[in-house]
Write a structure and sequence with these properties.
The protein contains two helices and seven strands.
């Protein structure tokens, strides 16, 4: 199963693109920065350079999301949501391949 953008995430990305006057060629890119004892670290940013040799692109309700192909196995089944509650707002990334607080052999967890 590929990466999934929830309806709330699709709506938020669409609103941000509109507010920043980003063109139709602009897409959301997810990257993996690394991992550690508390799980994987991700980056979400806007991009407009897609390389079909190196990248994979997904479409969700008019919102395009891309990642490097080398990240595909690590992001399989990942859900990107947008949360807006009394305690805060922001994107939440749930990756079943790397659960949070999975432990770390280096630290005795």
């Amino acid at each position: 199963m590929p990466i999934v953008l929830t309806p709330a995430a699709i709506n938020e990305v669409s609103q941000i693109k509109k507010a920043q006057n980003l063109g139709a060629e602009t897409f959301l890119r997810i990257s993996i920065l690394g991992g550690g004892c508390s799980g994987m670290q991700y980056a979400l940013n806007f991009d407009n350079v897609f390389d079909a040799v190196l990248d994979t692109k997904y479409e969700f309700g008019g919102v395009a999301l891309a990642t490097q192909k080398k990240f595909d196995p690590h992001l399989d089944g990942t859900e990107i949501d947008f949360l807006n509650s009394e305690t805060g707002r922001g994107f939440a990334i749930e990756n079943p391949n790397f659960p949070k607080m999975a432990g770390c052999a280096c630290c005795g967890h």
